[in-house]
Amino acid sequence: MADPAGPDDRDLLAAELALGLLDSDERADAEALIAGDAAFARDHARWEQRLAMLFDEVEEAVPGASVWERIDARIAPAAVPAPPANDDMPAHDPARKWKIATGAFGSLAAGLALALVLQPEPPPPAPPRVVIQTPDDVIVAQLQGSDGASILALRLDPVGERLLVRATAIPDGAGEPELWVIPDGGAPRSLGLVARDGETSVRLGGDLGRLLRDGNTLALTLEPASGAPHAAPSGDILATTRLTQL
Amino acid sequence: MQHADAARHELSDELARVGAGDCAAMKRVYDRTSGKLFGICLRVLHDREAAEDALQEVYLKVWHHARAFDRERASPITWMCAVARNTAIDWRRGSERGAVHAAALHDGTPQVGGDTDADILLRQCMDQLDERQHASIRSAFFDGYTYAELADRAAVPLATMKSWIRRGLERLRKCLDHG
C-alpha cells in the first residue's frame, strides 16, 4: 500500500501504521505523511485512540518489588552512580538501537512536547533561525548550511523517542550524511545516518532523547557509509546548530 | 464517568509533578499504574524477568518525558500504556524473538471487569470479527508483528493476511463509529 488512492485507503493506511503492520519502508512513508498531512495525522490519532481500547483487555499483574527499587535508584536526587548491576538496559546494546528507521516504536498520540528551535552557530554569516508551525501545532525546525539554505527539516515526536528528519538539500560530497548530538562540553554522539532524500526516522534509543535539549548542539557531517553509527565524526561538517528549548 | 474524569485529572496532576522532578509523585504514579503497565509488558514479552526489565525502562521514560506530556491532548493512562507497549515490543525485537511462541496468537481472552461503555463497545465490535481477524489484530498490537511476519506465522500468503486484516479493520471502524 505504497500509494493509497481514496480517503478510505488513507484511513486504512493510518490504521495500519497505528497497529504497527507496516514494514520499515512503508512505515517511513506513512510517518512522512503524518508530518505533512494534517488530515492523515488526525486519522492516525483517531485510530490510536480506537486501538488504545485494547489496553483495557490486559489483565493487571504485580511486578516484583525490585523494579521500583531499581527505578528509585535511578531517579533519586544526588544518586550516587549506579552500580554496574543497575546499568541502563542490561540486556541490550544501546548502539543497536540507533539503527535508522528500524525501531519498532509506533508514534504516540500524546501531545507535543519539546519544542526545539535550532539556532545556527558559526560558520558565519549566521542565517536567521527558521521555525515552521504545522496546522497541528507541531514544531518543526530547519538545519541550515552556511549559505542559509535549508539542509534538513527536523521534527521531534511527542514523547521524544524519535526524530523525523527530512532531507531538503544536502550538499554533494563523498560519504553519507550522519547526524550527531553534542552535549554541552561533551563528546559527539551519533544519531545515525540520514537519507540524502526523503524522510528518515531516527530512533532515539538509550539516553539520546535526553540529549536533545537546551544548550546541546546538533551537527551534520559526511561519513563513510560502513560502520555507522560511528563512535566519532571524521568527515566534513555541513552544519551545526545549537538547541534552544522554547 | 465522573469518577473516570477525576482519576484522569489526578493522574495528569501527578505527571505534572513528576515532570518537575518530584520523586514522591513518581512513586505514587508507579503504585497506581504499575499493575496495568506490567500487565502490558507481560502480554508482549511472555516472560516475567524481561517484562520487569522493560517495565523499569518504561518508568524511566515516563520520568524523563512526563514534562512533555500534554494533558489537553491525551489521556495520561493511555499515554503510559502506549509507552509500555512500544517499549516492550522494542525490547522484544531487540532480544530476537526466538523465545516467543505462536501461543501469542491465541490468548485473546478479554479480561472481565472494570467495564466502561468503551470497553463494552470494543468487546462487542471485536466479537463481530472472525477469529482470524481478531487474533491477527491483537497480535499486531501486542506482539508488534508486521503483515509479513503475521503471514509467515499463519503460513498464508502476504496478500491473504493483508486482506483479512484490512477487512477486519474496516468492520471494526464501522462498528466503533456507529455503535
TrEMBL record, chain A:
<feature type="domain" description="Anti-sigma K factor RskA C-terminal">
    <location>
        <begin position="108"/>
        <end position="237"/>
    </location>
</feature>
<dbReference type="InterPro" id="IPR018764">
    <property type="entry name" value="RskA_C"/>
</dbReference>
<dbReference type="Pfam" id="PF10099">
    <property type="entry name" value="RskA_C"/>
</dbReference>
<dbReference type="GO" id="GO:0005886">
    <property type="term" value="C:plasma membrane"/>
</dbReference>
<dbReference type="InterPro" id="IPR051474">
    <property type="entry name" value="Anti-sigma-K/W_factor"/>
</dbReference>
<dbReference type="GO" id="GO:0006417">
    <property type="term" value="P:regulation of translation"/>
</dbReference>
<protein>
    <recommendedName>
        <fullName>Anti-sigma K factor RskA C-terminal domain-containing protein</fullName>
    </recommendedName>
</protein>
<dbReference type="GO" id="GO:0016989">
    <property type="term" value="F:sigma factor antagonist activity"/>
</dbReference>
Automatic annotation (TrEMBL), chain B:
<dbReference type="InterPro" id="IPR013249">
    <property type="entry name" value="RNA_pol_sigma70_r4_t2"/>
</dbReference>
<dbReference type="InterPro" id="IPR039425">
    <property type="entry name" value="RNA_pol_sigma-70-like"/>
</dbReference>
<keyword id="KW-0804">Transcription</keyword>
<comment type="similarity">
    <text>Belongs to the sigma-70 factor family. ECF subfamily.</text>
</comment>
<dbReference type="Pfam" id="PF04542">
    <property type="entry name" value="Sigma70_r2"/>
</dbReference>
<keyword id="KW-0805">Transcription regulation</keyword>
<dbReference type="InterPro" id="IPR036388">
    <property type="entry name" value="WH-like_DNA-bd_sf"/>
</dbReference>
<dbReference type="GO" id="GO:0016987">
    <property type="term" value="F:sigma factor activity"/>
</dbReference>
<feature type="domain" description="RNA polymerase sigma-70 region 2">
    <location>
        <begin position="30"/>
        <end position="96"/>
    </location>
</feature>
<keyword id="KW-0731">Sigma factor</keyword>
<protein>
    <submittedName>
        <fullName>Sigma-70 family RNA polymerase sigma factor</fullName>
    </submittedName>
</protein>
<dbReference type="Pfam" id="PF08281">
    <property type="entry name" value="Sigma70_r4_2"/>
</dbReference>
<dbReference type="GO" id="GO:0006352">
    <property type="term" value="P:DNA-templated transcription initiation"/>
</dbReference>
<dbReference type="InterPro" id="IPR014284">
    <property type="entry name" value="RNA_pol_sigma-70_dom"/>
</dbReference>
<dbReference type="InterPro" id="IPR007627">
    <property type="entry name" value="RNA_pol_sigma70_r2"/>
</dbReference>
<dbReference type="InterPro" id="IPR013324">
    <property type="entry name" value="RNA_pol_sigma_r3/r4-like"/>
</dbReference>
<dbReference type="InterPro" id="IPR013325">
    <property type="entry name" value="RNA_pol_sigma_r2"/>
</dbReference>
<feature type="domain" description="RNA polymerase sigma factor 70 region 4 type 2">
    <location>
        <begin position="121"/>
        <end position="172"/>
    </location>
</feature>
<dbReference type="GO" id="GO:0003677">
    <property type="term" value="F:DNA binding"/>
</dbReference>
